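Quick note —
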Amino acid sequence: MPKKPICHKTLLCALLLLSALAAGAQKQQGKASFYGKTMHGARTASGARLDNDQLVCAHRTHPFGTLLHVANPDNGREVVVKVVDRGPYVRGRIIDLSLRAARELGILQKGVGTVIVQPWGRNMIPFLPAPDDLPEIEKAVSPRDTSIVPIWQRRDSVAAFR
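Predicted structure written out below.
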């Protein structure tokens, strides 16, 4: 029985999934660019409006809301940005930064700079608390207290309203 050929779409999806898992497990080094001033206020892939005054970025694989640590090895500057968009779709670039993030990293004058990107902390699943951060819940049943009666049902207070 001949083997069925693998669908290109299936292969592409598998590669994207593997690259997403690999991106979360290790750091990436590559070129970073930044959004232009005309993009301020544009709708991002997450649905939020782009604010170039915030520390946000576009990344191809990390989930929306993930915090990424971005470092510029040329000058030692570092910044933590939040993923709010998808991209960049230019060969050789791994991240698009807001103007503020590019300014703090010192790549605003160059236009494109080399950066090291890695997940910040343990937040690959955004907003997932650590097991030790969960509150303890005491599971106890209190005895039924029949002495608590609303004021309108009390016999002594009914006479006061007449």
